[in-house]
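Need residues for this backbone.
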């Protein structure tokens, strides 16, 4: 009999619907035939965590302590490794890693790895990400280490993108929101992006694969798929 699956701890609630989308994608990638075939997830869903974008911009309190407490609670509950279903919150990844004795799997690193595996040779990647992610240079620095340029929306379009995200968070997934998000992806393609990254976990709620002229890398889906593989020990956890 093989080793037991690893237990996955999920820092969630950032926002709740994005966490629900992540959980649904984990279930889909599990291809389970019985309840017992699914992997064991422990989800800390704390939507009271301070706004990440405001904190990065210096307009609000830091979410670091709330993120650290969720990470520690997951470890205490038995998680063998911890992930976070939010791209922007990875600006505080260092605090989380320092608080854990178990591995933390970076969503950003997993997305960059997915681009390299599925789009080899791509040198310009369009990223639909929050202003906080951009200000913290989360994607720019990580892709940059692999000599991949990040293509981003201009200031006016970025402001519209942020407004769209808050509409999605409030439950609006209508045709207008979907069309606007699709148009923003096409703007990045027109700017030379060879592949698109849904670099905010709200984006895949309104923009799916096949709705863009470029391949779309769904960060939520990437993390879900990798979590299943790590939990089942199909691939080793990142060092």
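Answer:
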């Amino acid at each position: 009999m093989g080793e037991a699956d690893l237990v996955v701890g999920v820092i969630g609630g950032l926002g709740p619907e994005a966490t629900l989308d992540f959980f649904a994608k984990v279930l889909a990638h599990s291809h389970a035939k019985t309840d017992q075939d699914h992997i064991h997830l422990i989800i800390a869903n704390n939507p009271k965590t301070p706004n990440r974008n405001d904190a990065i911009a210096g307009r609000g309190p830091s979410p670091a302590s709330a993120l650290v407490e969720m990470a520690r609670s997951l470890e205490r509950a038995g998680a063998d490794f911890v992930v976070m279903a939010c791209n922007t919150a990875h600006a505080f990844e260092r605090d989380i890693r320092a608080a854990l004795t178990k591995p933390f799997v970076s969503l950003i690193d997993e997305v960059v790895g997915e681009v390299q595996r599925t789009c080899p040779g791509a040198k310009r990647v369009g990223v639909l990400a929050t202003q906080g992610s951009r200000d913290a240079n989360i994607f720019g620095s990580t892709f940059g280490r692999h000599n991949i340029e990040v293509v981003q929306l201009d200031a006016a379009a970025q402001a519209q993108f942020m407004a769209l995200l808050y509409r999605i968070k409030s439950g609006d997934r209508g045709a207008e929101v979907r069309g606007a998000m699709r148009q923003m992806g096409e703007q990045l393609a027109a700017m030379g992006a060879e592949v698109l990254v849904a670099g905010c976990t709200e984006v895949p709620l309104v923009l799916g694969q096949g709705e863009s002229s470029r391949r779309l890398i769904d960060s939520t889906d990437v993390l879900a798929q990798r979590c299943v593989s790590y939990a089942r020990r199909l691939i080793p956890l990142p060092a």
